[in-house]
């Protein structure tokens, strides 16, 4: 099978003009089929503040009322997605932006929770992904760029976690490609000691992950990445890494950056 | 050649929830290849006001500084485009949203003017359109939905008139399809007397247009539509009409609504 990279970037990177440019140059340089999934960054919070739309977070998840949905749709699927696509086009990478509604590429269902109403938050699984459409896009030489907006095919848009989108797309496409899923962030990988950026684990298995988690040794922000990373690895994604966003080119060339997820 | 509809809707329709839904039901019902191009509506102005970004118009064209570009990108390519796509998907129409940057589908150049700097405003012509990409999308059974955002392949996004985008796409695709370009708006067509909605001209040729224009008998808002309509007709688009947005289904069935553009 041919190799396909699914690469996730987060908010910190998007908020920093120079870092984002440096990253996109690395991404554009990958000489293989590839997909980019991007998170949101601080822009949505800034806009919500300016528009006096109060933001409520529960366990790191944004409660998405209608006003907040409009904001994240504007920021994620509009401003951030189109600016990334325009820059990639400038770098000679034939990018095409997607929300989950476009071509019905990601169909979510409203999050059900016994006590909390998360509002317009969409949950997805492997069957949510329109594999055929993504295959068609890649076969046309296009490079899909996904924002973290999905829909329910009932006319509603949803806010969905970008780590989850990256992991779920990778699971679906593993049936067609030899997939490598890379979660890029500002750390060198999973750190044994959160205070020490040189304590990167070269590999981590589920048992080690649960051990570190139960000992409270993991940074809170890394938990959804690791959760989605293990889910992807357990569901057919060939290789899964957490790497530093500055090391993308090195990872593509040598394949031993950051922390590799093992079963 | 097979028939292809290129249909343009404007801001008034987008601002009215019920009218937009009624229109999209008609659009989804068209049993032929089709493309939708949408304008902006008042949302961009409302957002600019809330964000204290002053808006400057010269001859009905928005001067687009960086802050205004961010706003129109968020509103047009984000909120409006994705909501229209999600609603069409609900109606069983396999819509896919585009800005001009996506797949390099519309490459514009910054407007040059001897005395006015329009800012991030992009001009386009027939050669700006990535015909091959649109052909590929339609052949995949997808229905492209264009927002009025373009790019220059140098990493910059631009604001481009939606009537111009519709007319220019129609010109380009006339080489492949039997094209019909429909400008939908809230009037019944070109009115001989702007005060009388029953004075619709069944046809209008260039001479008649220039005559009415010089006599000041045309509503200001109709001029860019008519300009783009004649340009399209003169450049190979088979049929061009200005019709009432409520009459789309009737036009598709009978083909004699509103005002037909003649050479």
Notes on the structure:
The structure is a homodimer of 263-residue chains. With 263 residues, the first copy, chain A, is an alpha/beta fold. Chain A has a single domain (3-262), classed as Carbamate kinase (3-Layer(aba) Sandwich), CATH 3.40.1160.10. Chain A has helices at 11-15, 17-28, 43-50, 66-90, 131-139, 162-173, 206-214, 223-234, 248-254, and strands at 3-9, 34-38, 56-58, 61-63, 95-98, 109-110, 122-123, 143-146, 149-151, 157-159, 178-185, 203-205, 239-244, 259-262. Chain A has an eight-stranded mixed β-sheet, sandwiched between helices. In chain A, strands 3-4 form a two-stranded antiparallel sheet. In chain A, a hairpin with a 5-residue loop joins strand 9 and strand 10. The longest helix of chain A has 25 residues, at 66-90. Chain A is globular, with a radius of gyration of 17 Å. The mean pLDDT of chain A is 95. Chain A binds chain B through residues 50-51, 70, 73-79, 81-83, 85-87, 89-90, 94-97, 99, 101-104, 133, 136, 140, 142, 149, 151, 153-157, and chain B through 50-51, 70, 73-79, 81-83, 85-87, 89-90, 94-97, 99, 101-104, 133, 136, 140, 142, 149, 151, 153-157.
């Amino acid at each position: 099978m041919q190799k396909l990279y699914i690469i996730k970037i987060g908010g910190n990177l998007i908020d920093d003009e120079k870092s984002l440019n440096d990253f996109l140059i690395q991404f554009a340089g990958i000489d293989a089929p590839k997909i980019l999934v991007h998170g949101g960054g601080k822009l949505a919070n800034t806009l919500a503040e300016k528009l006096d739309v109060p933001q409520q977070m529960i366990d790191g998840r944004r409660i998405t009322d209608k006003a907040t949905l409009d904001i994240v749709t504007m920021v994620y699927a509009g401003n951030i997605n189109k600016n990334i696509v325009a820059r990639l086009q400038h770098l000679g990478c034939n990018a095409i932006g997607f929300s989950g509604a476009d071509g019905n590429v990601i169909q979510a269902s409203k999050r059900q929770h016994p006590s909390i109403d998360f509002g317009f938050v969409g949950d997805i699984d492997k069957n949510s992904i329109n594999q055929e459409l993504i295959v068609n896009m890649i076969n046309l030489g296009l490079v899909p760029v996904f924002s973290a907006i999905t829909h329910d095919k009932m006319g509603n848009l949803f806010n969905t976690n970008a780590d989850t989108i990256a992991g779920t797309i990778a699971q679906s496409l593993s049936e067609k490609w030899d997939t490598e899923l890379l979660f890029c962030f500002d750390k060198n990988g999973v750190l044994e000691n959160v205070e020490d950026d040189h304590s990167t684990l070269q590999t981590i298995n589920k048992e080690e992950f649960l051990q570190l988690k139960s000992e409270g040794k993991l940074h809170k922000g890394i938990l959804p990445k690791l959760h989605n990373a293990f889910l992807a690895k357990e569901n057919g994604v060939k290789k899964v890494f957490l790497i530093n966003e500055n090391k993308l080119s090195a990872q593509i060339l040598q394949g031993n950056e950051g922390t590799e997820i093992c079963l």
